[in-house]
Prior knowledge:
Elements: H1 2-6, E1 12-15, E2 20-21, H2 26-33, E3 41-48, H3 55-64, E4 81-84, H4 85-90, H5 101-111, E5 119-128, H6 133-140, H7 145-155
Parallel strand pairs: 3-5
Antiparallel strand pairs: 1-4, 2-5, 3-4
Amino acid sequence: MNAGAQSTEAPVLLFLHADTHLPAGALAELQVALCDPDIQGGCFELRFDEESESATLRLWSWLTRTAFCRTPRLVFGDRGIFVRRKAFEQLEGYREWPLLEDVDLARAMRMAKLNRRAFRFLPLAVTTSARNTCIIVAWYLGASPARMKDWYRYYAAPPAPRVL
């Protein structure tokens, strides 16, 4: 992700997982939020693509939108993290972790003593795959990113069939 950030001179960086989709109007909402010079970064609300089929996922999605979970310490890349380039560079970018480097960046933003207004939760919800929820739970239970990378590879969806 650092390589992606270095490949552009854009004043704002948006990091989005490949299985996460922005809703209509997301970039306009982001531009409005960044009109406030105090805002240094933030993320979107979260919905899972399979949540209508699972009470557990509906609960998890709802919890991510409660006041308790609206803190940078509970932000994952599934939510689409945005940050001003200057703040990103002051934080020295992402650590080179195999997984959850986005969690570390959000934590670094919090630890940098950015004021509460500096991190904004945008009201629009991105839609993402639910397969990462086990990784998130394992992180909070103390599993290392290196170990979880092996799990992720093992449980990843099989490649799509190729048409010859």
